[in-house]
Design a protein that fits this description.
The relative contact order is 0.15. The chain has 456 residues and is mainly beta. The protein has 1 helix and 35 strands. The protein has a single domain, classed as YVTN repeat-like/Quinoprotein amine dehydrogenase (Methylamine Dehydrogenase, Chain H, 7 Propeller).
């Protein structure tokens, strides 16, 4: 076990030196380790996409998808699902759970773009045909964010398959994981669409598939697609991406859930710990900071935030007397967004724009404020850089907050389109996926170029 931990630490050092942890690469959902943070470069504070202010480039992407862009070096990878005609998208705050009716054939595509210009380097059609399940009108058929390690890129189109390409666009393998039908709790006829993104760790691929019939967590070989292990989960549909925590004596995959929040041994898939409860439609990804696991959800009766010790064992509850729950808050958790820890603070933004800021170590609340006008929805997860926290509304307004325990909005910027996807950050440039485009936002110098000098 110690030898394996040393090997993983060496891999982490190599990734750091190669740029993954230095504000250069953004390899998967929410960037390195799903933390949502990219430091080392100055980032823009103000922009206006309709007016072209601080817009480096804007590239139309056909189809509709909520998956985020991912970046390695000078290449961006982005997924989409294309059909003939305009796809229905209903955003905002509402309670209807009806599925969108038959939309016909789709092309499920992966694009590789030049991050400097937005030009298409290559595109591949992974699958073409009728989607095997329907989607929520606020969802898409391409919700899962790809992931890359700089050599391979993995893209997950749920029931339409899991695919691995080289970064040059050569298909390495594909796997059919069956019909992955994510449904509303207690309403199996409501098909809402799949959203959990794949994870690449060393030479392995991990996917969490919590669906109506048989939920499972599985690990595949990155180079061959062969299954290494599969662990069944006693779980209803969930939509969150798992995270990985590697430390001396323990390496685990941590999954959000309703029946089965918990951690699984990275090498074997065996359950290490578990708990029940919270929101019955879990979406946020677990995150790690200050040697704590932060897990949140919000749907139904509870809206919990849990801060759990990573050496947790067996079944636990939200009772601090169990010894593993450091703190919890049962009223201010997130429904759609993955929270973010930046500096000493934990930021949790609900889908209705209520932002709560806590001391991450103790759970003490610093403030609770409303973003937007009260009727605005928030689905994209927050990201942070350069002393700022960026929170995007579904209407396409990006609120820039000064990081810290005091609430201060320093700018509100317009993307000019609906925005459901979490942005990526690389070398100080922010990359937003809107309803019809990918947009690169960066600080413009007087000669009209992007200054990429590291921030102070």
């Amino acid at each position: 076990m110690k030898r394996m931990w040393i090997r993983m630490m060496l891999v982490s050092i190599i990734l750091t030196l190669s740029g993954e942890a230095s504000g250069q690469n953004w390899p998967g959902f929410r960037g390195p380790e799903a933390r949502g943070i990219a430091e080392g470069f100055s980032t823009p504070t103000e922009w206006d996409v309709p007016q072209g202010t601080n817009v480096l480039w804007k590239k139309p992407i056909p189809g509709m998808a909520h998956s985020s862009p991912v970046i390695w070096g000078d290449r961006m990878f982005i997924a989409t699902a294309i059909r003939e005609g305009e796809s229905e998208l209903k955003v905002g705050l509402y309670g209807s759970g009806d599925s969108v009716e038959d939309e016909g054939n789709h092309q499920f595509k992966l694009y590789c773009l030049d991050v400097n210009t937005g030009d298409v380097i290559w595109e591949r059609t992974a699958f073409e045909g009728m989607p095997r399940v329907k989607r929520h009108p606020k969802s898409s058929h391409a919700n899962a964010t790809p992931m890359t390690d700089g050599e391979f890129v993995v893209v997950f189109f749920a029931s339409e398959g899991l695919y691995c390409y080289t970064i040059e666009g050569e298909k390495v393998w594909q796997r059919d994981l069956g019909v992955l039908n994510s449904t509303a709790p207690g309403s199996p006829d409501y098909q809402w669409g799949f959203a959990s993104s794949p994870i690449i760790h060393e030479d392995r691929v991990i996917v969490q598939c919590d669906v109506q019939n048989q939920s499972f967590l599985t690990m595949l070989d990155l180079k061959t697609g062969e299954e290494i292990w599969r662990t069944d989960r006693d779980e209803d549909s969930t939509w969150g991406t798992p995270c990985i925590d590697v430390r001396e004596g323990r390496s685990q995959i941590i999954c959000n859930g309703y029946k089965r929040i918990g951690g699984y041994d990275l090498e074997t898939g065996d359950a290490l710990w578990w708990m029940h409860g919270g929101g019955d439609v879990p979406v946020p990804t677990p995150i790690i900071a200050f040697d704590l696991i932060f897990i949140t959800s919000a749907h139904g009766r509870q809206k919990p935030i849990y801060a759990i010790k990573p050496d947790v064992e067996g079944e636990i509850t939200d009772d601090p007397d169990d010894g593993f729950m450091v703190w919890s808050n049962l009223k201010n958790g997130n429904y759609m967004q993955t929270p973010i820890v930046y500096g000493d603070e934990l930021y949790c933004c609900r889908d209705d724009g209520i932002l709560s800021c806590f001391d991450a170590k103790t759970g003490t609340m610093h403030y609770r404020e409303r973003l937007g006008g009260g009727g605005t929805g928030f689905s994209a997860s927050a990201v942070a850089a350069d002393g700022k926290v960026f929170i995007t509304s579904e209407e396409g307004d990006v609120l820039v907050l000064k990081a810290g325990p005091t609430f201060e909005v320093i700018a509100i910027n317009s993307m000019g389109e609906t925005c459901m996807a979490t942005p990526a950050i690389s070398k100080g440039t922010m990359y937003y996926r809107t309803r019809h485009h990918v947009v690169a936002i960066g600080e413009m110098s007087q000669n009209g170029t992007n200054d990429e000098a590291p921030g102070q």
